[in-house]
Amino acid sequence: MPMKYYGIYLAYAPSLDLRHEGLGRYLAAFVKGASLREDVRFVLVCPSWSRQGIAELFASEGIPEEKLEIVSPAKKPLVLRVYEAYLERKKRNNKSRLVQWMNTKIAKFKTALSNHVEHRLVATQSVLDVLWLLVEGLAALAVIAIISPVIIAILFGFGLVKAPKIARRVLRRVFRRFGVVSSRVGVAVEEPKDDAFVLRLYKRMESIESEKMLKLINAQKKVKAWYSPTAFWPEFNKISAPRLMCVPDVVLSDFPVEFSALGGDRYMQTFESVRRAIQTGQNFITYSEAIKWETLVDQYSVKPSDVTVIHHAPNMLHKWVTTRGFADLVETSKNYCWVLLSSAMRKSSNRHYASGFKNSSFKFMFYASQFRPNKNLLMLLKAYEYLLRNRFLSHKLILTGDSSKFPVVKKFIAEHGLQNDVLCLHGLSIQELAACYKLADLAVNPSLSEGGCPFTFTEALSVDTPVVMARIPVTEEILNQPEIQDTTFFDPYDWEDMARRIEWALLHREELLVQQKAIYERLIQRTWTDVVNEHITVLDAISAEAGNPSEVHS
């Protein structure tokens, strides 16, 4: 049987770590499913800055290197390499060679200056000579006063020196008139995604990189059709070969005010990119009927015949915390999970509390998600605080987002004194994620909008943890049995209903687990190889110009 080649197009931003993103886990599961096909190979084209991260993602998921070809431009742009070098320097605590060299030179200069002054004082023969020495000294001080702020500012800019308090006060006064500029530079360096100038610079860099990628794509004559796993990149539609674009969701259009308040120009540009990508697209895949009809057909006027619905396969985590070769595998696995959780606790937003936390068997609930407006975090926090204060809940709440990047969550936690009860563990490894799920008494997902049935359900149940979730169309589409909906779902717009469902689930944990495991056993019959096969059916159809792909159902 001849080998068929299809392409995957990725163009994520330099700062994105796919190992900690839902899209990254989806991509890894997809590629792993594809690796089981002996008659199909995928060629993945990505920016130069993503190649290493993608390779690390696939390595962490155990995907053989020979099953996938990764192609990218050879070198990262110079401006990106300089910025990454700056960030790397900031991480170092030890002084650099440059600082050591400068310290040596300054010490030699001070010695030489001292010797010169002492020699002149000893050698002076008249008052005029003393006055001339004072003039030299004043001139030298004037030169130092003029150039020292520039030198110090440069050193601060590279993070090479730290100033004492008095020096910082002086510098603040000297540079107060330059406050706007320094603030702008600070934002650009520390939070480049939030600076309009840096965004424009990145867009130019991205445009140049996409042109290089397009040349690489055009050279892949063996590839019959190309697939983009998301709709962020309108440049994908410049590919002349048949194209298939996945539209998981368009949450930016569902929560425009919240996203705008969080990211401003950045999210506006992302929304515009998604709009252009969909409007200039050819063929589409989505994970649910709800997204097909309510988003693509109704909002973007895409023809229904151009959209194929392919449901997710379950995401399972049990293999990451399964132990072998011990007499009591259950207890050994549990102990291993506590070790992983202890490691994860070091990533807590409240490091002072987490580092001294000695309770090795505390109870907690768990919600694994990035922090975004559609994730409904404030409703969850309101429900949790009510249970904690009024129903005397003894559980902590562990989240996996970065509260420093989501001010409303950070503010709520601080204002309600929840710093020691709500722990944000950002940047978990897949093993740590699995351990959190396994040790949790309950997994919770309050999200208002998802592209498909959230991974929470199967991820939690794969390690025997029950789940409660928001009642939204994509979850009702998969979990469609009335009895499971009654015990699993809550109204995501009503924090009191959420609190009631959480409290009931904790009190009836074993009953809920038995009920949900029966549904889980049915869901896991669908594999990621099934998902890949259905994608390949569509890719075959569009590459053969056999008309619009017919709808594929799970």
TrEMBL record:
What are the TM regions of this chain, as residue ranges? 138-161
* Keywords in alphabetical order: Membrane, Transferase, Transmembrane, Transmembrane helix
What is the scientific name of the source organism?
Pseudomonas vancouverensis
- Indicate yes or no for the key word Iron: no
Q: Which InterPro entries match?
A: Glyco_trans_1
Q: Please name the GO terms that the record assigns under molecular function.
A: glycosyltransferase activity
Q: Which residues form the Glycosyl transferase family domain?
A: 357-512
Annotated protein name in UniProt: Glycosyltransferase
